[in-house]
Write a structure and sequence with these properties.
The protein is an alpha/beta fold. Helix content is 43%, strand content 17%. It is built from eleven helices and eight strands. The chain is globular, with a radius of gyration of 17 Å. The chain binds phosphoenolpyruvate.
Amino acid sequence: MKKLIAGNWKMNGSVEMTQDLLSEINSEIDGDLLDKCGFLVFPPALYVTEAFKNAGTYIDVGVQDCSHNESGAYTGEISAAMIKDCGASHVLLGHSERRQYHNETDELVCTKAKLAFDNGLIAVICIGETEEQRDNGKAFDVVEKQLAASVPESANAENTIIAYEPVWAIGTGKTASAADVAEMHSFIRGKLGERFSDSENFYILYGGSMKPENAGELLATPNVNGGLIGGASLKADQFLAIAKAAP
Ligand code: PEP
């Protein structure tokens, strides 16, 4: 299984940055890197078209969220069908920033994921505990519940990627230890195994302050099939260095 190196740009960037960042990454992707990594970026939706012009053949492009409605009078929203229509392949769902700032629930994420599947998109579904939940010994309960309620029964390894992102590690510079990541990813794999016959083939990404300095160890951790990278995905050299650090 190749490692998937995915960049979540969040609400950062511009047309020029999209052009520069992707053409720089694209120009550095060579056969050696492609042997061990796949690439995916989530620019802001407005820049997806520009992203395609500069992403080349080997960088997939996704969108950071989609509506839980199919179409109609939902001002400001973007449907899964529109994302597919624009040529994107993936949609990021249930990121902790959406859960925190837009009160997204597991049930809402699940509805969005079903719409993503219906429209031929791959859903990257984010789960992860807060610092308080971890300190209170609740990390596994929280992740189990999010996984059960956010991931539809119709999920499989072809249409779903799980991203384990401990909330306390996102954008903070704090990273979960490799031992904690190993334990949680193995737990997630086990829970997937209770529901899905192809659980061994699901990609499970780690996200939370992944950087060139810690990527080698994290990406070599059992059941870590790649990284979801925020801050470090905005700099071509850092994003590429993370990929190069993959075993
Ligand atoms: C993220 O936004 O999904 C993320 C992991 O961010 P960062 O790498 O900046 O912690």
